[in-house]
Write a structure and sequence with these properties.
This protein is an alpha+beta fold and about 180 residues long. The protein has six helices and five strands. The protein starts with about 35 loop residues before the first helix and ends with a helix.
């Protein structure tokens, strides 16, 4: 019998395998977060394992979005969550009102916020409320998956004028003084 947790979610290991070795589970049946892109990643991992390939579900950063106007997207930790985990966060925020591309497009409500580890500058979370937030969060996901720091984000050349320049400005705010 496949093992489930008290709410009824199927328990799986990092290969999406249940306690019954030939049964795999992915998606909403495995619990939170209930996200299609999470299920897709689990599906790829399960298929690779079934095919005999080395694979594991090890996501450092899972993006989320609320499809509203303005758009809302986030990945990783908030400042209170970082504190709960014993990390001293440093937080920077940049309003889209001051972003050239947002002004050009007439959609300058909201902000981009980065939560970083105060000691090392590792990016722990990014929160975006504003134009194209669902698309902009991808850069933050890639940065977090690679354990990037605000120094790396700050030194990455971004085209101008673009919305994602907001993340560079926030990184500059958080980077240690030279």
């Amino acid at each position: 019998e496949v093992r489930c947790d008290p709410p009824g979610h199927v328990q799986v290991d990092e290969q999406c395998r249940t306690n019954v070795p030939h049964i795999f589970a992915i998606g909403d049946v495995t619990g939170l977060p209930y996200l299609a892109h999470r299920a897709s990643k689990q599906g790829v991992v399960a298929a690779e394992v079934i095919a005999g390939e080395p694979a594991a579900y090890d996501v450092r950063a899972m993006p989320s979005a609320v499809f509203t106007d303005p758009e809302i997207a986030w990945v990783g930790l908030s400042e209170p969550q970082a504190l709960e985990q014993g990390v001293r966060p440093k937080v920077g925020k940049f309003p889209f009102m001051a972003n050239s591309k947002a002004s050009i497009s007439g959609h300058h409500e909201g902000f981009a916020k980065v939560v970083a580890d105060e000691q090392y500058g590792e990016i722990l979370g990014v929160h975006i409320i504003g134009p194209h937030g669902y698309e902009l969060i991808a850069e933050a996901v890639a940065a977090m998956e690679s354990e990037s720091t605000v120094d790396v984000m700050m030194s990455t050349i971004h085209a101008h004028p673009t919305l994602y320049e907001a993340l560079v400005v926030v990184a500059r705010l958080l980077a240690p003084a030279a």
